[in-house]
Amino acid sequence: YSQYKMSKFEEYDLYARNKSFLISDNIITFTGNGGKLMALKPDVTLSIVKSTKDGEESKVFYNENVYRPTGSEGDFKEIMQTGLEFIGNVDDKALTEVISLAAKSLETISQDFVLDVSHLGIIAEAVDALGLTSAQRSQILSAIKDKNLGTALSVCREAEVDEAKTALLEAVITCYGEPEATLDKIEPLLVSDEGKAAARTLRRQLDLLSDYVKA
Fold it and tell me: Burial level of 18, CB count in 10 A (0-12/13-18/19+)?
């Protein structure tokens, strides 16, 4: 992985066209000397994608400051963001490589660490089956992130969701532990082809990761 360096500014249009990708659409803007509307970068990934040619593989890491509103007051703060991007043919080997780098990075900080691994395909099935509005869906996703079962069930009750449809959601929120045991609890609750495929992919990745990290 090579280091990616970027300037503090990008044209605002880049972020305006990709607002759905951003955590917040509140962005610090100013008019540049040439009259173009510029922005203090709220994200690094979009700049990396912009600089990568179509069909080109890119493997980069970055340590960059981004500028985002934080907290309940929404005040802007300068935040150091560290990460990597693998752009190209993202196969099993690529996914295992990225996850193993996360594990090894944590290991350099402390031998006593926990790496949480998930799959959005499983999350999608748990949420899509509920038939929620956009606002309710956002609440559920926040509850999953925080492992807040009480809030999730409250949203489902307000939306009059059939209790049978919440079984997978409850399992996703409450399951925690070793990979095999956790997947064994969740996998039988998956009914869609996409969800089942996601579970198989996750199980395969975790098996590969075990060998990769030991190596």
Answer: middle
